[in-house]
Amino acid sequence: MRLTILNDNIPSTGLINDWGWSVLVEGENRFLFDADTRGEVLAHNSKALGVLLENLDFAVLSHWHGDHYGGFPLIARLNPGLRLYAPPGGTIRGLKVVEVRNAGEIADGIWTSGALDGFEQAVGVETPSGLVVIVGCSHPGVDRLTRAVLEVSGYEKAHLVIGGFHYPPPGTLEGLAEMAEFIAPAHCSGDEAKDYVRRRYPEKFVEVRTGTILEI
What we know:
Blueprint: E1 2-7, E2 22-26, E3 30-33, H1 39-49, E4 58-60, H2 66-69, H3 72-78, E5 83-86, E6 96-99, E7 104-107, E8 110-112, E9 123-127, E10 130-135, H4 142-153, E11 158-164, H5 170-179, E12 180-186, H6 191-200, E13 213-215
Parallel strand pairs: 3-4, 4-5, 5-6, 10-11, 11-12
Antiparallel strand pairs: 1-2, 1-13, 2-3, 7-8, 8-9, 9-10
Helix pairs in contact: 1-3, 4-5
C-alpha cells in the first residue's frame, strides 16, 4: 500500500500547502482520506507528485471542518457520484454521502472507528505489514480513535498511526506508543508532540510533510 500526503501544514519545495490534511491511499482500494481546504492545492500537488485524483473507489472524511472537507467539490467534479463516508452533519454536492455513526467495515480490509462523540472518525487499513490507522484531527483523542479501530478490526496493535493528533498531552502519546509500532504525527499535532515522540520513541517516529510518500 502507498500513502501520498497531498497536503500537510508543513510545506515541501515545488508543492503548495495550507493548514489542512489530505492523504491518497492506494492499495486493494484507492481512496482519499480528507481533502484539505482548497481544490487548487490538491490539483497542483497531485499533478506535481504524479498521482491521479480520478478513478477513486470512495472517499473518507474524518470530520466536518473546512481544513478537511474544503477540497471535496473538486473531487466531486472529477468523480461524480463518488461515495463519501462521513460522520453526520453535512453534504457535498456531487458526492453520495454515506453517514457513519457506528464502527464497522466499509470495504474489504478497511474499518471505521465510527463517529466518536458523534463527531469524528478514523479508519484502519489492512496491509501486509499490519494495520495502518489514519486520523484527521483526533479531537476525541488519537488514543481513543486508534483503540476503536483496533477493536473493530480485531488487531491487537497498529503498524502505523498517521495524521493530526490535536496537540496531545504526553499521557496520550504514551498510550498511543503502546498501541502502535510506528507513529507519524502531522497536521495539528504540534511541534511539542512531534518532539516528544522523536525524543521518547525515536525508533517509532516517522516524519511526514506535504509530498511525503510512504510505501507499506
